Amino acid sequence: MIFYFTATGNSKFIAERIAAETGGQLINIADCVQGEQYSFALGDDEALGFVVPVYFYGIPMIVAEFLQKLKISAGHDYYSYVVLNSGGTAGDAEGLFRRTFPVNAVFGIAVVSNYVPLYPMESETEIAKSLERAVRETDVIIQHIRDRSVGSFNATKGHFPRLSTFVAYPLYKYGRKTGKFTVNENCTGCGLCERICPRKAIRVESGAPVWTAAQCEFCLGCLHRCPSAAINYGRKSAENGRYVNPHVRF
Q: Which residues contact 174 (CB under 8 A, 6 or more apart)?
């Protein structure tokens, strides 16, 4: 059983590869939260996995809330792990996860950085290289899962991980304001943003999205996956590009 949360596809990309090699069932955390489903049963000798992105050197709030309510029943001592994927460094996201839901092993992968409110997207060539590297690193993780390896195999913590998380994560946890989202004239009113928002914080009114909550998950799925690139956040995102994992189907 593999739980994942994704906005642009990187976590799903990793989770699908692990599931294909280990036989684990894929479950979308956002679907569980929206459906208020938190109780699950593991099969005989089944492992429990999580694949989640790193936000501001921590874990998404929707993941933290899900973990706090998650109840796993099993007739055996099961093996558990988490794969943290970041755009570069993960800080102490590992510590945050372990304190919320203890696991046997922690893995880290640097995939594709896509925080376009501040930084421009890499070139298509660099993105392809990053994804190829992620495949190789995922294959190593798969072998660890098969071997039931225990410990931290996370090389993405960076320098001063606890300090990075201490400084940056509260900006995410107590921020996530929707006031800076804007929509330009390219919007077609397709409604995709409303359908994919994990917090149901978007409603299409008069042919354009409106953010109906002061806070959202800040996953930026609406921004990146808008087929018309009509959604922006702040001043820089319009010129910094968009990203959706090219190997994933939603």
A: none
Q: If DSSP codes are grouped into helix, strand and coil, which group holds residue 96?
A: helix
- Judged on CB neighbours under 10 Å (0-12, 13-18, 19+), 20 is exposed
Report how far apart, in Å, the C-alpha atoms of 132 and of each of 83, 107, 110, 137 are. Answer: 17, 17, 11, 9
Q: How far apart are CA 231 and CA 186, in angstroms?
A: 9
What is the pTM for the complete model shown? Answer: 0.95
pLDDT along the chain (250 residues), means of 10: 98 97 94 97 94 98 98 93 96 97 97 95 96 97 97 95 97 94 96 97 95 96 97 94 95
Q: Which amino acid is located at 162 in the chain?
A: R
CATH number for domain 181-239, candidates 3.30.465.60, 3.40.50.10810, 3.30.70.20, 3.40.50.2000: 3.30.70.20
Q: Residue 28, exposed/middle/buried by CB under 10 A (0-12, 13-18, 19+)?
A: middle
pLDDT at position 177 is 94
What is the CA 42 to chain-centroid distance, rounded? 23
For 223, counting Cβ atoms within 10 Å of its Cβ (0-12 exposed, 13-18 middle, 19+ buried), the class is: buried
pLDDT at 76: 84
* Other beta carbons less than 10 A from residue 46's beta carbon: 17
